[in-house]
Design brief:
Elements (H helix, E strand, L loop, with lengths): L37 E6 L3 E7 L8 E6 L2 E16 L2 E17 L10 E5 L2 E7 L13
Antiparallel strand pairs: 1-2, 2-7, 3-4, 4-5, 6-7
Length: 141
C-alpha cells in the first residue's frame, strides 16, 4: 500500500534550498576569495620557463626561492577596494596576506643562472636545468 502524507505548508521537505533565501533582504554577497598564483610551465632541452600571474602586487613584494627541483613563489598582497554610494560606504573589501605557490620540476635547477622579470602583473622565470652528473659503471675486481 502506498504511504500517504498530509500536506504541511510549513514543511521544507522537497524544496529544502529552493526558497530558503527568497524572502530575505538583498545583500551584497560577492564572494571574497583569496588570490591565487596561476602558473604556466614550459620545458625546453636546456631550461624551464615559468609565467606566473600575480595581480595587484609590487615587484618588491615578490620572493622566489629555488631549492633543487622545488620552486617557491611568495607574494605579499595588500588589496583594498571601497564601494561608495552618495558618500556612504556600502561595502569595503580588504585583503592583506600572502599568496604562495610551490611546485616541483622533473630536473634540478641551476640556481646560479636563474633569471626573473616582472611586467604587467606577470612574473617570468627562466630556470636553467642543472647538468646531470654522468654515471660511471664500476667493475669489481
Amino acid at each position: 500500500m502506498a504511504n500517504l502524507k498530509v500536506y504541511d505548508p510549513f514543511s521544507t521537505e522537497p524544496f529544502d534550498d529552493v526558497f530558503s533565501g527568497f524572502f530575505r533582504p538583498a545583500r551584497f554577497s560577492a564572494p571574497i576569495t583569496e588570490p591565487q598564483i596561476k602558473i604556466d610551465v614550459e620545458e625546453t632541452d636546456a631550461a624551464y620557463k615559468v609565467r606566473a600571474e600575480i595581480p595587484g602586487v609590487k615587484k618588491e613584494d615578490i620572493n622566489v626561492e629555488v631549492d633543487g627541483d622545488v620552486v617557491s613563489i611568495r607574494a605579499e598582497v595588500k588589496n583594498e577596494k571601497d564601494v561608495k554610494q552618495n558618500g556612504k560606504v556600502l561595502r569595503s573589501e580588504r585583503y592583506y596576506g600572502a599568496m604562495t605557490r610551490r611546485f616541483s620540476l622533473e630536473n634540478n635547477v641551476d640556481e646560479a643562472h636563474t633569471a626573473a622579470k616582472y611586467e604587467n602583473s606577470v612574473l617570468f622565470l627562466e630556470l636553467p636545468k642543472k647538468a646531470t652528473a654522468s654515471s660511471k659503471r664500476v667493475t669489481i675486481g
